[in-house]
Amino acid sequence: MERRDTTATPQSGSPSYTSYLRLDDLLACQTPLSDTHDEMLFIVIHQASELWMKLCLHELDAARAAIADNRLDTAFKMMARVARIQQQLIGSWEILATITPADYSAMRGALGASSGFQSHQYRAMEYLLGNKNAAMIAVFGDAPHLQAALEDALHRPSIYDEALRALARAGLPVPTDRLERDFTQPYAASPAVEACWAQVYAAPERWWNLYELAEKLVDLEYRFQLWRFGHLKTVERVIGFKRGTGGTAGVPYLAKVIDQVFFPELLTVRAVL
């Protein structure tokens, strides 16, 4: 009797590849509003980026909790994973940049006022990393559930706040006003915190876990800045110095954003080593 190969056939009651990943739903989400060929690329790149950001938030939220629990090795794995995800996000600009100015102009009218500026996941990532700006929540006035989620993110300590608490638990003299503060406000750099990190960098063998934590944070900041720069150069290439669809100044706005840093003392400490 001929034997059938059933290795790729889903068992009764078990999910198939298509049903497990809900591919019918996922692949139905790309609905261009114009007849422009390149709009499909524009949609897919942005949807894929949102999925990668969802995973970044999943990993960074867990990493923040692990740091708070002194499970630094666990946090390192998650932070290293986010660094790899960031590489995917950075690389996506290379694909998006294949859209020419003429191609983009043909679809721009269909986009209305929609803009990456309105990405709540991007804003949540900035809050988690420490760039707190409560005014940005107003952008989501038509979505109360998103405003509530961002309000929660705004009030929680950032991953850097938890890193500073880890320094203090290890016995380093982190100022109290940097440990007990209003987390809805942007973090302000402190010479005393820089001095704590300087101790860590001066004796990595003694403070190995904190040294590695510092470098993992620097990795995150480095790649986030590369992502921002890639965004700026892609926008510059595709639309030049036109205003953004969301009402921002476009390239000049993105240039200012690049100057924002998440973990200031981890950059300034390098000058004193």
General description of the model:
- Helices cover about 60% and strands about 0% of the residues.
- The protein contains 13 helices and no strands.
- It has helices at about 15-20, 25, 40-70, 70-95, 100-110, 120-130, 145-155, 160-170, 175-180, 190-200, 210-240, 250-260, 265-270.
Main sheet summary: none
State the helicity in percent bands. 55-70%
Poorly predicted ranges (pLDDT <50, ≥5 residues)? none
End-to-end CA span: 76 Å
Q: What is the count of DSSP helices, taking H or I runs of 4+ residues?
A: 13
- On the 0-100 scale, what is the average pLDDT? 93
Estimate the strand proportion. Answer: under 5%
Order of helices and strands: HHHHHHHHHHHHH
Oligomer: single chain
Q: Which word captures the global form?
A: globular
Query: What Rg is obtained from the alpha carbons, in whole angstroms?
Result: 22 Å
Number of strands: 0
Structural class: mainly alpha
